[in-house]
Every structure is written in structure tokens, then in C-alpha cells.
Amino acid sequence: ALRNWNGEYADKSDEALNFGFYTNLPKAMLSEERLRGFAPLDKPVPLLGGGKTLLALSTPVNYDAFAEIIRTYGDDEAKFGLEQALGMLGQFGITEADLRDLARTFSVVIGGGASFMSAPLPGAYALVEGTGDAAKKIAATVAELLRGQQLPLEELKVEGWDTVYSMSIPATVTIAVKGSTLLAGFLDAQKLGTPQESDPALAELLAKKNLQGFLFLDAKVLAREMLQFLQAGDIWDQLIGPDEAGEMGEGMIAAMAVLQSLNALRAEASDMESLRLSLTTRPVASEDQALLETVVAKWRETHPLPEEDEEEVSEEGQAEATPAP
């Protein structure tokens, strides 16, 4: 491994590219007392909603440390923004004490089942775990605000959860509370009891104790979701228009050319000063390549490339076919 003056390192193998980063920024900005407020992760992130996990990340959070950084190091706009946000929350009875109790751990998961205007999508939700009744109080406040906007939010009974608010139109939205845990995002509430399938490498990461944070992105699942978007082109044409769908599709086609050879991106912090990144690769399977070519060809029957792009492709092909003098 190579190390430079600021303690970074990198190493490479046939199947992975690894990086390490070090910083003393937390110690420079926060007192030892504040740093002790970032308790290491002590339990796995709940992967809910069925399907497969595309992304999972989790980190300890500390409201007092966040507020101290803004008030000490932030510019006038940041300081004003914080006080304005606190003032708005205060109008709904949410205090700084509630924010302090709400989140000791913050997680984001992409995976599970959701839909937008009946079009299937991977779910995406945030999950905060804290102490006391802050989760229940804030969930009730958010539900009241949504109902005030005449959105069809209803309260459901879901086993294992204290309170669940849900709606399915225009998108599947769920707000759920279990003890001092609050979940909110795009997810089918009826699938809260169904676990996701995840890569063994993610399961290994979730089993680790005393991490100060992690991220896992499954490139295989991301590629599959993009492929499903291309296969459902007619639905997305109706929802967002053929031009917008065409642009998104071409972006996904370009991304999938890279994703086919990637396995996963993994990041983990063992303490507040270090971060390790690992990008793993995989061989391109011939059947995956053949399927992608078939789907792309069908996609471009209804979403042809703009004329200038077609000309560029044609010129490139002609240049490759013309022997050098």
C-alpha cells in the first residue's frame, strides 16, 4: 500500500480497489465531550419491504454537535437558516430537546417495494433511532401536516409497529414508529414485516460492532433496476413524457455499460478519524451483455437517438471501419 503525507493509502487487486482516508477535522472542531456523544453503531439497520437491497448507510448523529458546528463555524446564512428552521419547528411544538432525543443513529436504505402512479420503483426510506417519545411526537406532527394538504394519508395496523401512517397515491409513502424509532419514506406499508434480500458482503458489514458509520451500494441491484426501467419504457413515457424518459434511459444505458463490471462499493469508518473504501469488480457475464443489448435495441425502437447523436455514432463506426493509410 502507498501512503502519502496526509495518511491516505490505496491498494489494488484483480477484484478490488481499496482506499483509506484519515482526518483530524472532528477533533479540531469538537470537544472531547461532544465527540463522545457519537456512540458507535450497536445494532444492524432494519432492511424492510421485501425485494433486494440497493443501498444501505448508517451513521451515529448528535444534534448538539451539529448545532455547535453551525453556530461556531457557520456563516451568517447558515446560522440564520438554523434559527429559522428551529422557529418553524417550534410553531408545531417541536423543540431542540425533541431533536436531541429523536436521532442518535441515522440510516438510509434503498430497496423494498414502492410505486409512483402505479409504476414499480425500489423503495427508499430514512430511519432514525433515538430515545423517549420524540419519534412518536414528530410522526404525528408530520402526519397532521400531510393531512392538512388534503393528501390521502391513513393510519394502519401493522404487526410489530406502534403507529403506521400510509398512502398509496400518487406514491407509496409510509411513516412508522416503533418505540423510539422513526421510519419515513417511499415504501409499501404492508411490506414492513418482509425483510429484504441482501448481498453477503452487506450482511457481513451489518454484523460488525462499534463502527462509526458505513455505506454499501450493490451495483448488481442498481443495474437490475435500470434494466427494469428500460423494459417499462411505455409506462414511463406516460408518466413523465417520452422526451424526459428518453434522456433518463440514455443516461442509464451509459451507466450500465460501467455497472456491468462492478460488484459493490463499500465504505466503513472504524472511528471518527478514518474511512476505508472498497470498490469490488466482477466479470461481465455474456448472458447479461446479451440481455442488455436486446433491451437497448428495443428501447431505441421507441426512443431513437437524436439526429446529432446518430451522426456521431455513424461517423465513429465509419472511422473504425476505414483502414489507416
Summarize the structure.
The chain is built from 12 helices and 13 strands. The protein is of the alpha+beta class and about 325 residues long. It has a 13-stranded antiparallel β-sheet.
SSE order and pairing:
Layout lengths: L1 E2 L5 E4 L3 E7 L2 H5 L2 H5 L18 E6 L2 H11 L2 H15 L5 H7 L2 E12 L2 E11 L4 H15 L5 E3 L6 E5 L5 E6 L2 E6 L13 H7 L6 E6 H13 L1 H8 L1 H18 L2 E8 L4 E8 L4 H17 L4 H15 L4
Antiparallel strand pairs: 1-2, 2-3, 3-13, 4-5, 4-11, 5-6, 6-10, 7-8, 8-9, 9-10, 11-12, 12-13
What does this structure look like?
This protein has 325 residues and is an alpha+beta fold. Helices cover 42% and strands 26% of the residues. Strand 7 (154-156) and strand 8 form a beta hairpin. The longest helix has 18 residues, at 242-259. The two termini are 45 Å apart.
